[in-house]
Amino acid sequence: MIRAGVRAVLATDPGIEVVAEAADGHEAVELVRAHRPHVAVLDVRMPRTNGIEAAAEIRRTLPATGVVMLTTFGEDDYILRALGCGAAGFLIKSGEPEELVAGVRAVADGAAYLSPKVAARVVAHLASTGAGALAGRRAAARERVAGLTPREREVLSHLGGGLSNGQIARRLHLVEGTVKAHVSSVLARLGVDNRAAAAVVAHEAGILPPPPAEQR
Questions:
Q1: Nearest to 186 by CA among 62, 104, 194
Q2: How far is CA 127 from CA 18, 109, 121, 161, 194, in A?
């Protein structure tokens, strides 16, 4: 039923084509190898090979395929593991259907996507993993961000908003290649491996992107 629901939601966007469905994590990896899609949508809990293991294998062998993870509020402990595996999108199954389409499109464009509910849960979960109180996490995040240049902090804020390099370039009136260089520098300075992890740091530090000019 969940797979049917996901397919139905994605079918509402004419720009998205579902090329295959998998009944378990092992089959998901095999189908990604066969079809090489832009994005793989994985449930955290799947038979045989779970979503975390499937995501790690997909990212290891087919890095051109972005991974979107579907989670529930009871699976917060899996989110950090998924971040470590290179997943770029995180959605709550009970979220709005539009978020699934937005998440798939963002990851296809090379951006990270944390739905607002997931972002809040990630920050709360990080605070409860023994790494210190939430205030300590936020202070640590702000300290890490303090080492960035003003432009890098600006880029990080847009990463936290889930924007792709092209979208950031348009917002900041920069060449996309310049944005890509800034993103690489931000990841290196923060000591994180992917855009989703950088987005978490942005949320922890309370860095939010300014609204588009037309909305100000």
A1: 194
A2: 37, 30, 10, 21, 20
Q: What Rg value do the Cα atoms of the chain yield, rounded?
A: 17
Report the alpha-carbon distance of residue 137 to residue 126 in Å, rounded.
Answer: 8
Identify which of 41, 25, 155 has the alpha carbon closest to the alpha carbon of residue 88: 41
User: What pLDDT, on the 0 to 100 scale, is given for residue 215?
Assistant: 44
Here the tokens at position 37 are 């899609």
70 by DSSP, 3-state: which? strand
pTM: 0.65
For the segment 87-141, what is each residue's pLDDT rounded down to a tens digit?
A: 888 888 877 888 889 889 988 888 778 776 666 666 555 555 544 455 666 777 7
